[in-house]
Request: fold
Amino acid sequence: MNEIQTELKNQLEKYRLQKIEPFMEEDDHNENFRMDIFRELGSLGFCGMTLPAQYGGSELSYQDLCVALNEIAKSSVSYSVTISVSAMVQNIINEFGNEEQKQKYLPELTSGQEIGAFCLSESGSGSDAASLKTTAKKVDGPTGPGYVLNGAKMWITSGGIAKTYIVMARTGAEGSKGVSAFIVEDGTEGLSFGKKEKKMGWKVSPTREVLFQNCFVPEANLLQSEGDGFKIAMAGLDRGRITIGSIACGLAERALDEATKYALDRQQFKQPIFDFQGLQFMLADMATETEASKLLVDRAAYLYDNGVSDQKLASMAKLKSTDTAMKVTTDAVQILGGVGYTSEYPVERMMRDAKVLQIVEGTNQIQRVVIARSLKKAYQK
Ligand SMILES: Cc1cc2nc3c(=O)[nH]c(=O)nc-3n(C[C@H](O)[C@H](O)[C@H](O)COP(=O)(O)OP(=O)(O)OC[C@H]3O[C@@H](n4cnc5c(N)ncnc54)[C@H](O)[C@@H]3O)c2cc1C
Reply:
């Protein structure tokens, strides 16, 4: 870690221990997202870390962003994921938006005043995202040319609390080439939200259906050209997978910390349970897998920062780190025994929060599909 990253980490550690950690159990139980926490993280500069200064960003690297998300995730995966998805939306607008779109939408997202959401999945199209059915029909609207959106997006992180939605909708034929990407603002007529999903984990982060019923968006809200939407979505996800990896590593590190401290403290058979070799080997494996995952995520972020687009490595980082988070949090519950299964300790929440990391932004089966496809391409004559 360089000097900037050490400073970021220390600042965020202090913040999360004072402002997030004390409320996590209660907020998890009540499924309570605190907008003031998100906005405070924004005012401290953590919501627009990688964006250019002219749009309110801090011009830091992806590696720096990963350090920040990793640290926040040690207390709350939910806030970390909210920032991560909003960062993905900002990056999409910054890379694919025109000057007018950047000036209009980026400052309120980089400052953390508002949240961004990414709307790709539908009830019938998850892994097979290119089969999405939401339509965007070109029309001459009352205020000029635009598109009328109809359809339902499912599982949208920050649905209902976000202000800026990137929405993938079909403007052309079946398949990925018929998909376009639009910016839709909260408050637009015809945009509404379904009920909050009852989830196993990520309870502080609201997940909702986002519904479009004859929802008119002006032509100015189209990102790039018609048919570019799938390419835009995939570019966003390639980066999102790296940040999801950093969140998974934060979760694994915290679970390892809780399990080690408990094992050293808890006595059975007149000795600390840490002294049983069976547990030592579990902890050694947990530490090794966590470190290996951190290195892989850091490598993927480093390559991205240095202009190398390596989809395979981003998938490997997401796959390895989220499988590690699942294994390490599950083993942490095991090491704590009965109390590990109760909300007296945070490891049960961490185990619940880890599971969905293996599902979002491409399931871990889909990451394997991406990695295998890339292997085949490299070896095929
Ligand atoms: C809490 C939460 C937050 C989310 N946030 C967002 C969001 O903000 N924006 C958004 O757009 N989406 C979001 N999602 C949706 C998420 O990206 C999808 O759930 C995910 O892509 C999987 O799609 P699916 O649920 O339809 O599963 P399916 O695609 O139906 O998959 C079911 C099973 O089949 C497997 N499978 C499918 N295809 C293959 C294949 N080719 N090879 C091998 N196995 C395969 C999958 O791995 C999985 O195990 C979120 C989901 C959750 C649960």
